[in-house]
Amino acid sequence: MTHPQHLLIQQVCKSYSGNQKALDNISLELNNGMFGLLGPNGAGKSSLMRSIATLQSIDSGSIVFNGKDVCQEPDAIRRILGYLPQEFGVYPKVSAEKLLHYLAVLKGVRDHRQRQRQIDDLLARTHLSQYRHQPVAEYSGGMRQRFGIAQALLGDPKMLIVDEPTAGLDPQECHSLHHLLCDIAQSMIIIFSTHIVKDIQDLCSNMAVLERGKVRFAGAPKTLIEPLANQLWQADISPQQIPVFQQQFPLLSSRFIGGRCQVRVVAPQAPAPGFIQAAADLQDGYFYLLQQHQQSGLDLRQPQVA
Ligand SMILES: Nc1ncnc2c1ncn2[C@@H]1O[C@H](COP(=O)(O)OP(=O)(O)OP(=O)(O)O)[C@@H](O)[C@H]1O
Questions:
Q1: Where is the signal peptide (predicted)?
Q2: Contact 213, 23 (CB under 8 A)
Q3: Which of 219, 81, 231, 248 is nearest to 158 (CA)?
Q4: In CA terms, which of 11, 95, 273, 277 is 20 to 30 Å from 210?
Q5: What's the confidence (pLDDT) of residue 296?
């Protein structure tokens, strides 16, 4: 049976030693499923995740998970939360299974039999059973990430926070990690931060875009694409022509395909002969949002309930 989980983030602000706000009035509401966090470097994604994970305090606002205030009841939250940070740190030279036992005890799973059952189950789900006696220090990048998910799932958490879990993984490992996350997302909230826009498009039912500490968008990924309906045009041009189009229209991307430069621009009709209409994907919507925002200096949307 699936239990509804609920995370309410209201007007959260956070500054580090007097600098510009890393989190500037963040409000979001999350329910079961995968929630994607997108944003350029320094947007505040890790700061938000660390605050939710009770690893740092916030200056103002509130974060309430299933009715419990994260700041007032951090221990209660830690018992129902799993966290996979960007850098998991140095692994001791002990086997995966031993390390999981150790981490499970820290998480409060004291009964040995219960712990063993949970560890066996998690090793199987993360396809690590056959490597249980191998030190995690000797695992490949993908195996370490899967181990990271296994440790985050100890104690049967109701919310999982994963910060760029697929960084450095090969496509097959990414695929396998995505499967695992989608599988467990039915019964919990998963907050998933990444720079890979397509991963959010493929995996997340809801998402937010952060930029300079503010929520610039919150909602279903397809909503982010809507402003580009019938407005996106694509053509192969010479690289010298790029500035010409850039001056006239929002240029969302330019990339080389088979030695030709393909550009995608936003315009009410074809900007020049040779342009064809293109279907927008999430990356187009994301770039458009950031561009509009950076140009106008205004919020495109008020923070919304996702
Ligand atoms: N411990 C810290 N001390 C001082 N400033 C910090 C600290 N952590 C983050 N910041 C600053 O807060 C802002 C938000 O950083 P944060 O790491 O949350 O962004 P991010 O979106 O996770 O970036 P990235 O995608 O690069 O991981 C940045 O300006 C960063 O320099």
A1: none
A2: yes
A3: 81
A4: 277
A5: 56
Q: In Å, what is the CA distance from 274 to each residue of 69, 230, 235, 236, 253? A: 57, 16, 6, 8, 17
Bridge partners, 10 (sequence order)? 62
CA 139 to chain centre: 24
Nearest CA to ligand 1 atom 2: 16
Q: What are the residue ranges spanned by the domains of the chain? A: 6-219, 225-299
Per-residue buried b or exposed e for 85-100, using 16+ beta carbons within 10 Å of the residue's own CB: beebeeeeeebbbebb
For ligand 1, the distance from its centroid to the CA atom of residue 225, given in whole angstroms, is: 27
Q: How far is the CA of 30 from the centre of ligand 1 (A)?
A: 22
* Closest of 288, 157, 295 to residue 223, by C-alpha: 288
Rounded to two decimals, the ipTM of the complex is: 0.97
AA identity, residue 244: V
Grade residue 256 by pLDDT with cuts at 50, 70 and 90.
Answer: confident
Architecture of domain 6-219: 3-Layer(aba) Sandwich (3.40)
Which ligand 1 atom sits nearest the alpha carbon of residue 47? 18
Report the alpha-carbon distance of residue 279 to residue 189 in Å, rounded. 30
**For atom 3 of ligand 1, which residue has the closest CA?**
16
Instruction: Name the residue type at position 147.
Output: F
Q: What does the chain come to in residues?
A: 306
Cα dist from 141 to 10, 56, 173, 177, 196, whole Å: 36, 27, 9, 12, 18
Q: What is the DSSP string of 144-168?
A: HHHHHHHHHTTT--SEEEEESTTTT
Confidence (pLDDT) at 35: 97
